[in-house]
Write a structure and sequence with these properties.
- The chain has about 450 residues and is an all-alpha fold.
- About 80% of the residues lie in helices and about 0% in strands.
- Helix 1 runs parallel beside helix 5 and helix 17 runs parallel beside helix 18.
């Protein structure tokens, strides 16, 4: 098997890291009420419990860069599959709050690692003309994983499992995690990593199967070698130096704005938000499934057009949608407070569905593609790890503080998110470069990096 089918098959397997990322991220949304009761948690304690996986994610995202350089992208993905499996079983069988936090932390390590390794691996095996769509499959799988988590939570809640319901919600993740582990052995190593290790023969064999930008495997190998420029640079040189300042600032900016939209607050606390807006428990879980469905549909739309319209266009459309939808949600909470009418509840539901659509079509589809493109081959793993670390640090901050801030004022919370998206719109218009259709080695030159 070679060519497009081999490339697409390898992409789908690597993107399973994204599906588990999405599932692990969203599954806790259906368990917050049970966790509060079982472990007798305050608002602060619940926020910390939700953030425990995110603390692992922060550690995993920043720690994965060096192992990805030393061991290779595929080997790191195999280790991540093991972390997902152990976390799923351990969270389901947790015997006290401390053990639950530990196993959620392990899952977070997997999520953090996957947010770097999956899109980076796919970017490095993909010809430029397909790269946006193929890397964006990771994001599609993330939202598919979220939808599966929301739907699984809803189905398990309908089964009346009683006190063990929340344990099953975590435990079912083991099955896709085990599949991910075994399927990874069918995929090739990254050709760019192989070149960096001097394994030119293996890299040539992989590129013959995957396809190239230049039409010639030898020319592609030479392009990668030139970009590494190991006569003047080393694979261990510091990331934080003036030469790499531009991609560093771009990565930190897009990752920070991603979370200042409040997206992870909604993903983790969707049923809680809908209950704040007057929905009952069962209705809140069902509305959360609608959130996951909208997320998947608009992510698929973005995957189909990202290589045609480009990254900046999607970010512009998404930013405008963010501002409108978050503004309407803030208005609803300012208007209705804690006494929501059916009309007020509908305004919140529709606004948040528009918000999810805007995220899925814009930031959600673009961030992992953009982060995987803007760093040179010799520092890509560490650069993408920095971008992912920034994303998850902000996610932990937003998710930990949301229950506390929302208790004070839902209106203030969503108004703040809306104002941050005005700043994102200005960043896209004035600063963000377009990377559509540009080979990875040429993006390096476009950013002025020798």
């Amino acid at each position: 098997m070679k060519g497009k089918s081999y490339l697409f098959g390898s992409t789908l397997v690597a993107a399973l890291g994204g599906l588990l990322f999405g599932y692990d991220t969203a599954v806790i949304s259906g368990t917050t009420a049970a966790l509060e009761k079982v472990f007798q948690l305050s608002s602060f304690g619940l926020g910390f419990t939700v953030a425990s996986a995110l603390i692992g994610t922060i550690v995993g995202s920043i720690a994965v860069g060096r192992p990805a350089d030393l061991l290779g992208r595929r080997t790191v993905l195999i280790i991540i599959a093991v972390l997902y499996s152990v976390s799923a079983v351990g969270s389901a069988l947790a015997w006290d709050w401390g053990s639950f936090l530990f196993f959620r932390f392990l899952g977070g390590l997997g999520v953090g690692g996957a947010s770097v390794a999956s899109p980076m691996y796919i970017a490095e095996i993909s010809p430029a003309r397909y790269r946006g769509r193929l890397v964006a499959i990771t994001q599609f799988n993330i939202v598919l994983g979220m939808l599966l988590a929301f739907f699984s939570n809803f189905q398990l809640a309908e089964m009346g499992l009683g006190a063990v319901e929340w344990r099953w919600m975590f435990g079912v993740e083991f099955f896709p995690a085990a599949a991910f582990f075994f399927l990874l052995f069918l995929t090739p190593r990254s050709p760019r990593w192989l070149v960096s290790q001097g394994r030119i023969g293996e890299a040539s064999t992989v590129l013959e199967k995957l396809g190239t930008d230049t039409g010639s495997v030898e020319d592609e190998i030479n392009e990668i070698r030139d970009s590494l420029d190991l006569d003047h640079h080393t694979l261990r040189e510091p990331l934080f130096q003036r030469m790499y300042l531009k991609p560093i600032l771009l990565a930190v900016a897009i990752a920070t704005f991603n979370q200042l939209s409040g997206i992870n607050a909604l993903m983790y606390y969707a049923p809680h938000i809908f209950r704040m807006a007057g929905a009952g428990q069962s209705s809140a879980l069902l509305q959360t499934v609608a959130v996951g469905g909208i997320n998947m549909v608009f992510t698929m739309a973005a995957v189909l057009v990202i290589d045609h319209f480009g990254r900046r266009f999607l970010m512009l459309v998404g930013s405008i949608g963010y501002i409108v939808s978050l503004g309407m949600t803030a208005w609803a909470f300012y208007t209705y407070g804690t006494e929501f009418t059916p009309t007020g509840s509908l305004v919140v539901l529709v606004s948040l569905l528009v918000f999810i659509a805007s995220h899925a079509f814009g930031q959600g589809a673009v961030i992992w593609v953009f982060l995987s493109e803007i760093f040179p081959n010799r520092v890509r793993a560490r650069g993408q790890a920095l971008g992912s670390f920034t994303h998850w640090f902000m996610a932990a901050l937003i998710s930990w503080t949301f229950p506390i801030i929302a208790e004070i004022s839902g209106g203030h919370t969503f108004a703040f998110y809306a104002s941050m998206m005005v700043l994102q719109l200005l960043w896209v218009l004035l600063i963000m470069p377009e990377t559509k259709g540009v080979p990875l080695e040429q993006i390096q030159k476009k950013l002025g990096i020798k």
